[in-house]
Design brief:
The structure holds two protein chains of two kinds. Chain A is of the alpha/beta class. Chain A has eleven helices and 13 strands. Classes of the chains: A alpha/beta, B alpha+beta.
Chain lengths: ~325, ~110
């Protein structure tokens, strides 16, 4: 009996858990917990340890599917999985959410995190959510990856569709397992599909409060320790804010003005990622800037600056949805 | 403050230090290739700490990530500002904890003397 392993990784909401559920013939082992941070913007529950599923390819070949938690704060699990559970995996499938503001930032981040792991195994990039946002398209991915020096396979998949995810498996083990009947396997897994059928949505559901997306500001303050947020546009003017303290508001604006000035006068030193103002007894004020937007956050003095940075990064990666 | 300056400068992950009083540089170990970072950090921290003071805020520490570097500013007694240069990839908590511990240690020594 041949046993193969594939490790799925990628940002929160990129479809790792869904892909494994689509393929697994057993009840998947997952470790979902209620979201307690800015991820609330995209979903109610998230993986905190790992996902596991199994697929029998033939009578003589079995595939074990492992998924990492998406959030960077569970990075210790990535290390644990790489060094032990999936040290002998065939490939790393990097799930990339096409609705993120900059999907290539995610690719750079994960390739860097898994660099050593990738020395001995294949990388396959699986782009998801392209039904929500079609661009960047396949050609753009290939060109950008070439520029990044990454010569790898890119596939656009719907993680909810077993037949689609099965293509990833075929790409990884297909050459070695020539006896697999891929069509029959897809038919066998059809019941795992969670692709919604195209039906008309009643008006009352469309207009209900529950259907409204959670705003970036609300998502920011869903993180324990983050007490206020200010969203600014490319012109560095405030789009939305719930920062209660006038003092913090004024300081955040001063910080944004400073960053704007530095962006013009010190561009030769490189991009400004963030600016933080702290005090032993003060709430921490942080400004995170990107070309098209900026985010100001107020957080408890005890909240780790690393956590604040990660939350801001995720919030900015999803903020493009708000304007569309 | 010179003792603090020297002690911070000796930390492994600190690539250069600068001690300011007003807009005057009292001492600096910033590498020559990083003079631009020093200039930018000076202006940025004077601006932000002045604003904090005007708004009656006790914020006394700031970190600015620019390019592959981070400059950290600490407001000290007597209107002095200590600026440290480190790699952006250095844990910022390491920078702040080490500088604060050293600063508190030197302040205690001064009070006992």
């Amino acid at each position: 009996m041949a046993d193969y392993k594939i490790l799925f990784t990628g940002s929160v909401c990129s479809g790792k858990t869904t892909a494994i559920r689509s393929l697994s013939e057993i009840e998947t082992v997952d470790t979902d917990a209620k979201v307690s941070d800015s991820v609330i913007r995209r979903k109610q529950r998230t993986t905190i340890a790992m996902d596991y599923g199994v697929l029998e390819l033939t009578d003589n070949a079995k595939l074990h599917l492992y998924g990492t938690p998406g959030q960077e704060r569970f990075r210790f699990m990535w290390q644990l999985m790489m060094s032990d559970l999936v040290a002998d995996a065939e490939a790393l499938v990097l799930m990339v959410d096409n609705t993120r503001t900059d999907p290539f930032k995610d690719i750079r981040f994960y390739v860097n995190e898994f660099r050593d792991y990738l020395v001995k195994r294949r990388l396959v990039i699986a782009v998801t959510h392209s039904d929500v946002r079609a661009n960047p398209d396949y050609n753009y991915y290939m060109n950008q990856l070439k520029r990044m020096g990454l010569f790898t396979t890119v596939m656009f998949v719907d993680a909810r569709d077993p037949a689609d995810v099965l293509k990833l498996v075929k790409e990884v083990v297909g050459r070695r397992e020539r006896e697999v009947d891929w069509s029959a396997l897809a038919a066998k897994l059809a019941d795992n599909s969670t692709v919604p059928e195209a039906v008309a949505i009643p008006d009352q559901i469309v207009s209900s409060e529950a259907a409204k997306p959670i705003s970036l500001i609300d998502a920011a303050v869903n993180t324990r320790g983050i007490t206020g947020a200010m969203h600014l546009g490319g012109d560095r003017k405030v789009i939305d804010s719930n920062v209660a303290s006038m003092q913090s508001q004024a300081l955040l604006k001063a910080m944004v003005n400073l960053v704007s000035a530095l962006e013009q006068k010190a561009a030769f030193l490189g991009k400004i990622d963030n600016f933080m103002l702290c005090g032993e007894e003060q709430e921490t004020l942080s400004v995170f800037v990107e070309e098209e937007q900026a985010l100001g956050l107020c957080s408890d003095k005890g909240l780790s600056l690393m956590v604040v940075q990660q939350q801001a990064s995720d919030l900015l990666q999803w903020s493009r949805n708000e304007n569309e | 403050m010179n003792e603090l300056f020297e002690a911070v400068d000796e930390l492994d992950f600190i690539e250069g230090c600068c001690l300011l009083k007003g807009d005057q540089v009292l001492s600096s170990t910033f590498p020559a290739a990083r003079r631009h970072h020093e200039t930018i950090a000076k202006k940025a921290f004077i601006y932000v700490f002045t604003n904090a003071s005007k708004l009656r805020s006790a914020h006394d520490e700031a970190h600015l990530e620019i390019g592959d570097k981070r400059v950290s500013g600490f407001m000290l007694e007597g209107g002095q500002i200590l600026i440290c240069l480190s790699s952006k990839h250095t844990n910022v908590v390491n920078v702040r904890n080490n500088v604060r511990e050293l600063y508190n240690g030197f302040q205690q020594q001064a009070q006992m003397a």
